Amino acid sequence: MDRIAWQNPKRERSRAVTARTKSKRTSFQANQEEFKLRCAWLYYVEGMTQEQVAHNLGISRLKVLRLLAATRDEGTVQVIINSQAQSFLALQRALEKHLGLYEAVVVPASDQGEATIASVVGYAAARFLSDQVSDGLSVGIGWGGSLQACMRALTWREAEGLTVVSLLGGLTRASAYNPSSVAWRLADFYQSELYQITAPVFVPDEGLAEALWAQEDFRQLRERARSVDIALLSVGDVSTQASIFRRGILQPEDGKSLRDAGAVGDVLCHFVDQTGVVIDHPVNRRVMAIDPTVLRQVPKVVIASGGVRKVQAIRAGLLATGARMLITDVAAANALLELPPVERTRS
């Protein structure tokens, strides 16, 4: 007799059911995989919202969340940060650690021309400042090419009780490069109250500067500068290319004398050495501007400056003011990393 006739019918039926079950399970798993892929494709590639994906697939938003999480966990979907963005992030983090900053913003510059650097750094500063604008905010403002560019890129926000404090005096002649013009433009843009040092940024002699600072209005303005919420400023170097000499605010012989005395840059028209100390020099004794060390009491001090030429001045400016935020360009950021690190006291 044929052997097959002697096999147990129940066992054969059981094997058949098992085979069909396995087939269904395999089919179900395949469908689930396809379903997850469709979900991921719609969300990550076609840019649908989770609600739109749920509607398209006829499932709940919670189910969409679970499917998307599964694709990431299984490695079907991998999140990759753009290599250029990743390098910028790494540079910013390195700069924060090296200079003891809370935040560094590094922007690309297509070339190292002064106007280009000022434009891109100024734009980044404008984005930062525009985001900070709120009711009752008080802003201390400096000057420089980056801040002039910043004023051209501000975003309007409604804010009541906004106050702008100019941190330095101006020029006796009208000029687009007047140090006090940046504060005026900021106040005009946001239609806010403005406090200014109504005196030339450099007066003829030390005695006149002392007499002016003794005036009640100037004393009050100095105190007001100490209590601003944000101080935004730029720095300058002491080369012959620096705006303060090119614009005739100071003479070339002043620059040489300052360099000989150890100055590496100016912060609010106060000339500082590489450690951020305001040097003992006649020019510093006749300046009508807030001493940068006063800003150490300000909660948020931001320096917006770029260019390799200014790296010594930037580092000195951070030390002089206690600034914990820096907005600069890539080339300057890399050059700053080659300088000695900045040691900060915990605060």
Quick recap:
This is Sugar-binding transcriptional regulator. Helices cover 48% and strands 11% of the residues.
> Any idea how many domains?
2
**Tally of extended strands?**
10
Number of helices: 14
- What is the CATH fold-level name of the largest domain? Rossmann fold
Structural class: alpha/beta
Order of helices and strands: HHHHEHEHEHEHHEEHHEEHEHEH
Q: Which parts are unreliable, with pLDDT below 50 for 5 consecutive residues or more?
A: 1-6, 22-26
Protein name: Sugar-binding transcriptional regulator
Keywords: DNA-binding, Transcription, Transcription regulation
Pfam family, one: Sugar-bind
Biased composition (Basic and acidic residues): 1-15
How is this structure best described in words?
The chain is an alpha/beta fold and 347 residues long. The chain folds into two domains: 11-73, Winged helix-like DNA-binding domain superfamily/Winged helix DNA-binding domain (Arc Repressor Mutant, subunit A, Orthogonal Bundle), CATH 1.10.10; 83-337, Rossmann fold (3-Layer(aba) Sandwich). It has 14 helices and ten strands. The strands form two sheets. A seven-stranded parallel beta sheet has the order 1-10-9-5-2-3-4, sandwiched between helices. The radius of gyration is 31 Å and the shape is elongated. The N and C termini lie far apart (96 Å).
Topology (SSEs and partners):
Layout: H1 9-45, H2 50-57, H3 61-73, H4 83-99, E1 103-107, H5 114-132, E2 138-141, H6 145-151, E3 163-166, H7 181-190, E4 193-195, H8 206-213, H9 216-226, E5 230-233, E6 235-236, H10 243-246, H11 252-260, E7 265-267, E8 270-272, H12 282-285, E9 300-304, H13 311-321, E10 325-329, H14 330-337
Parallel strand pairs: 1-10, 2-3, 2-5, 3-4, 5-9, 9-10
Antiparallel strand pairs: 6-7, 7-8
